[in-house]
Amino acid sequence: MLTNIYRKILPSKFRNYLYELFLGKILFFFRNFSIIMKGKIIFIFSFILPKTEENKAYAFIGKYGLTSYPNKYMLEYKDLEINVVYDNELKLPYVIHHGNKLYFPEFYTVEKTKTDYRALLIEQDIRSAHRYVRSYDELKNKTLLDIGSAEGIFALDTIEITKNVIIFECEEYWLKPLRATFAPWQHKVTFVEKYVGDKTEGRFITIDDFLSDVPKNDLFLKMDIEGAERRALKGAEETLKNSTAIQMSITTYHRKNDPEYIADLVTKNGFSYEVSDGFICWDKRLSKGIIRCKKD
C-alpha cells in the first residue's frame, strides 16, 4: 500500500533520482540482509571456522560486499580498462574481445557496455564458478547449440574451432548485435529465434524436434536460460538417450536444487559429470554454477 502511495505522489523521474541517490542501496541492503550478515559473521570468525569452499565464499562477501562471484580473482577486474567503440554504420557499441568485435545492444551506454563486458570476463575466467568448460578445445569439430546466447561471448570464444554454431536467442535487443558479431562466420552460424522448452508450439521448440533430422553426435549443448533448464532438458529426452560424443554445460544456480536434479537426470542417461569449482551468489543463496556433462 505504501509503495502505491509513493508511486502516485512522486513522478517517475524523481523516484529514479532518489533510487540512484540512496534508495537503491538501502533496498539492496535489506533485500540481501541475511546473506550479507552471514558473510560478515563468517568473515569475523573465519580464523576458527573450517576453511571450506562455502565458508571462503561467505567470508569474501563479508569482507568485500555482496557479489555474484565471491572469489578473490574477480578483484583483478575491478579497475580493468575497457575500450568501447561505436559502430556508426550499425549504430551499435562494441569491444574488441580476443581480436574480434563483440557487439552490444544499441541502447547500451559506454558505461553499461564496460560494466557488462567486465562482468562477462569475470564470469568466464578459468577460475569462475560460471566457466562453461575447462578448455575451449573441448568444442573442437563439434556442433555448438548455444541455448540462451545473449551477447554470444561463449560462441565467439570457440567460433574458430567449432564445426557449426546454432544460436538460440529470442530477445529482440540481442539479435542485431549477435548478427553483427558473427557476420564474419555467417557460413557456419545459424540463428533460431525461439525459446527452447518442453514442447514445440508458437515461439517454443524442443531440442528433440529441432534435431529430428540432424545426426545426434559430436554435439555440445550450452544451456543458460534463466531457470528454464529443466523444461529444456525434458524436451531433449531422445537426444540425451540416443546421442553419442555429446557434451553439455548447463547452469544450475537459477533454481534451488537444480544441481542435484540435473546431476540425477544426466546420470540416468549415461552421462558422467562434474560441477564447476566455487559458488555463485544468486537469489540470496550460494549455489554451484555449472554442471559439465559428457557421454562418449
Please give the domain count: 2
The CATH topology label of the largest domain is Rossmann fold
Unreliable stretches covering 5 or more consecutive residues? none
Secondary-structure arrangement, i.e. CATH architecture of the largest domain:
3-Layer(aba) Sandwich
Q: How would the global form be characterised? A: globular
Relative strand content: 15-25%
Biggest sheet strand order reads 6-5-4-9-10-14-11
- Provide the CATH superfamily of the largest domain: Vaccinia Virus protein VP39
Largest beta-sheet characterization: 7 strands, mixed
Main structural class: alpha/beta
Q: Tally the helices.
A: 11
- Helical fraction: 25-40%
* CA-CA gap between termini: 57 Å
Mean pLDDT: 89
Gyration radius over CA = 21 Å
Task: Show the helix and strand layout.
Blueprint (H helix, E strand, L loop, with lengths): L1 H8 L2 H20 L1 H12 L8 H12 L20 E3 L4 E6 L2 E4 L6 H14 L19 E5 L5 H6 L5 E5 L3 H10 L7 E4 L2 E2 L7 E2 L1 H4 L6 E7 L5 H6 L2 H6 L1 E8 L6 H11 L3 E4 L4 E3 L2 E3 L2 E6 L1
Q: How is this structure best summarized?
A:
The protein has helices at residues 2-9, 12-31, 33-44, 53-64, 110-123, 153-158, 172-181, 207-210, 229-234, 237-242, 258-268, and strands at residues 85-87, 92-97, 100-103, 143-147, 164-168, 189-192, 195-196, 204-205, 217-223, 244-251, 272-275, 280-282, 285-287, 290-295. 37% of the residues lie in helices and 21% in strands. Helix 3 packs across helix 4 (53-64).
